[in-house]
Structures are given as structure tokens and as C-alpha cells.
Amino acid sequence: MGSWKIQRKLHEYIYSATSRRLLSTTCKYGVLTTDSSPKLCTGNTRINSPVKSLKKTVVKLLSTDSLAAPIHPSGQQNVRDRFKTGQNGSNTETVGSEDVNTLGPVEERREFKHGRVPSQLVLDHFDRQYGRHFGSEWSDIRAALMAPKLNGLLLNNFANVSSKVATMLKERRLQNIFDICNISGKNMQFHLNEADGAEKDFDLPFERNCKNSKDTDANLQFYIHPENRHVRFPKLKHVPGQLKSYFLQGAASLLPVLALDVQQDDSVLDMCAAPGGKSLALLQTAKFGLLTSNEPDLWRKRRLVDTLQSFIPQEILDTRVDVTKLSGVHFQDVTPNIFDKVLVDAPCSNDRSWLYSKNIIGMQMRMEDRRHLPELQASLLRSALHAVKPGGSVVYATCTLSQQENDEVMESVLKQVSKNSKSRIEVINLNNLTENFQKVFRFDSLTRYGQLVLPYLDANWGPMYFAKLKKY
Known about the structure:
Blueprint: H1 3-14, H2 17-24, E1 30-32, E2 38-40, H3 49-64, H4 106-111, H5 120-134, H6 138-146, E3 152-155, H7 163-171, E4 175-176, H8 177-180, E5 188-192, E6 202-204, E7 222-224, E8 246-249, H9 254-260, E9 267-270, H10 277-285, E10 290-294, H11 298-311, H12 314-320, E11 321-324, H13 331-334, E12 339-345, H14 351-355, H15 360-387, E13 388-398, H16 407-420, E14 425-429, H17 431-435, E15 451-453, E16 464-471
Parallel strand pairs: 9-10, 9-12, 10-11, 12-13
Antiparallel strand pairs: 1-2, 3-7, 3-8, 4-7, 5-6, 5-14, 13-16, 14-16, 15-16
């Protein structure tokens, strides 16, 4: 039996009726009633050893199974979406929502979040971890995490934009994010960190008022409200033979794609691609050679394929897109020095998703799994650096505020590579990129290796961390 099947069987066992009854009498933090609603536990009882042992087995399996695959939760709610990779996540991407609704007061914005109540256990954990790190800013960031996240609209350059969609954009007063930031029609320049060596420029071309086209030379067309207001859009259903005209995702998800700086004829790897939003954005940016869109988890790979087929013409999928299911850590052995660009939208603890976990045991397991994530993320990043060819670049991204999963992963990998590799790895300074987007995003000023989009109520994007490395 495959490891993913074993994993699923273990989940089914833990949350069977028998195990729920057992846990209800032994849970230290709370008990589960027959409707799975949590209640406070007054005793200091412990989990019985067989269940505790099985729980540890599951945690170990989830932490060491296919390393590029997301770590699944143990609760029944959203079983397959525990750590979303893009991401947001960061992978925070979404495929649609219901009718249109505009911004209201903060109370209305929270009410819009389907009446969900954030977990106090998770909030307490965030307060301990992030309160120390962000200090006085944490209360504002905390309030934003509990408010509805914003979504933007990525127009599909391969599909015709209907008059209905054009009217919707006009009525909601949406604008292209590049026009809002006044960067359309000019190049955005990247350069190496001056402390890291000689300066080198990279161009990201954007044309003003670029028109819809079925040619892959078309540039990104990403629409948001210029005042960062929340706007909802109709959900698009898949119609065989008909491409969807737009994809909904957080605007911060664009930043790792832009940082990757894809050029013509590049060979690109999206290592942890599901559900497919960043692969879609990559395919809109440049007429590059081949995109390898990878996802080892079978269920998430099906989602990835469905997304690509809903937005990309079949002839493009047949000739320029390769969907694979390889564990991310194996690219260093299977395809060393092959790719021009690699995007590692790593599995992460996904703060927004975790905040609304309903199952107490699932939340406890997430806390345990979170300790293992930096090791997993570092393994993926090291693999990407081996897979990229000399002169190529790697972008590492997460959708969490966690310093351990962001800068500290970068630091540990840089130290390991400098000791054990003949290649030279340098950090690319992304300040010039982020300066172009100051009108839309709020960035953390304390990061050392990458950039972090901080969510605030007046700019509720992210969290999204991204950093860029160049291999010589």
C-alpha cells in the first residue's frame, strides 16, 4: 500500500467514531462531542497511550512523507487543504466566490468571513510567537488576519474577455495593479545586494494598456480595487472546450512570479505548483521555453491539471507545459543543472488557513508538524539550487509570518551550500521590486534575506514571503 494510502487510513482511524469517543474522555485541552464541537475540559487527564502513540506515528509520517507534498491535517474539515502552496497562500489562492459584495466597515468585513470564529488556541500561539517578533505592530497584523483576505482578478490572456467581465471590472472600479503603482510602460530593475558582489540588472517588461491576446507574449493583467477594497466575483464553472476568462487569487501571489523574472526561452520549474495559480501567472508573463509544473500529491495534482486545462489552450499544454508528480527533494538528483528558473512555493503553516481550524486535536498536531516544516522547506530549497543551472535563479516563497520558515530557512541553506557545494550562491536584493508596489502592499522592514508582505486592515494582502537566489 502506498504511503499516501496509509496516511489516509490513519486519518480515518483517528477520526472514526470509536477514537472520538476515546479522545473525548482523555483530551487535556478539550473534548469532542458527537457533533465534533469543542468544549473546555476541566480535568488534567492525558491521552491514552495507544492513541497518543498512533498520533505520533501520523505526525512522523506527515513530516517525512513526499517532501514536496503538503502536510495533510488530521481533522475532517478541509482535510486536503491544510498547507496550501500557492501558496497562501501564498499560497492562498482561490478559484472563485459567490456574488458581488463591496467593502463595508471592519465588522461587516469580518461578518463576510462566513461567520467563522478564529481558534483561541491558535491565536494564543500566534500571540506568543508573533507578538515577540512584531512587537507593537502585532495587534494591527492580528486584526487583519481575522478579517477577510482580499482577492484580485488575473485576466486570462488566452481567453476572450466578455463584455460582461469588462462591464464588471468597470462597475467595480477595478484597475490593473501595474497602473495603480505607475510601473506600466517602464522596466523594473533588479540588482544583486551590493554587499554580495558586483551589480547586475534584470529587466521585467510591462507595456501600458496591454490588450487581451491569445499570444503568450501578453503581459500580466491583474485587477484590484485601487483603495484595496474587498470585491467579490461570480464563480466561474468549467465548460469543456471553453477557457475561463479570469482567476481569483491574492495580489501578493504575483510578487514571487515577478521576482522570478522569466525571460524568453527559459526552462522553468514550479516545484510545488498546486493549485496552479502561480503556474497560470507564469504562463501569462513571457514566451518561455518549457514550464514543468510539479505536484507529488495525487489529489492536489488533479486540482493542478484541472486548473491548467480550464485556463490554458490544449496546444500550449501539449507543447510547453509538463505536469509532473516528483517529490521535490529528488529534482537535485533527477534534473541537476537543468532549469533556468525555479519557483519553490513551499508547503508552510499558512497562518490564515490555520487560524480557522475547528478541530482541537488537529490544531495540536499542526503545532507539532510546524516544528518539522523548516527542515522540509530547506530540503526543497537545496534541491532547487541543485536543479537550477549556473547563471539561473531560484525564488523561495511561503504564505506565513513565521521567521523560522522564512529568513531562518534561507540562512540555514546558504550556510550548508557554502560549505558543501562548489557553486556560489548569492542573494538578490529585491528592494527595487518592492518599492514599485508600496502603494498596494505593506512590507516588513526587518527581513534579512527576502521580502515579507504584512497584512493590515487597509491593505489586507498576504502574508507572503519571497526571496531570490542566483547560482554561479
